[in-house]
User: Fold this.
Amino acid sequence: MEDNNMNQNQTADPAAGQGTGGKTFTQEDVNRIVQERLAKEKVKNSGEADFAKREQELAQRELHMTAKELLSEKGLPVQLFDALNCTDKETMEKSIATIETIFNDYKANATKQIQFKGFQPGVSKQMPDAGTAEDLEIRQAMGLRT
Assistant:
């Protein structure tokens, strides 16, 4: 039985008994070794890629939270966040500044007194123009002067 094991070892490794000091590999052995090493490198590199991706996602979330805080600090609605360009911090701050300027202008103009056209009590004794035939019908149905 030991002779069979020795014969199998010698046929599996013919260079081992030659005393050349180096081991020869078949093409299949080389392919297997290369595949194993490539698999190890892929696992190692995929871990680094996942880490870089997670780091980038974390930085983006942090930037979004900063943007929402800035909107709140400036008295702007947080719903405006979707209108912001948050590719980087400088662009985000510039977007918030632009929105703040527009929003403040809008608020300033919204408080101006609106001038209504039509009948204003005490200003004129004339009745407003009845307008269309439909308006006349409505006025008559309500018992108003035409």
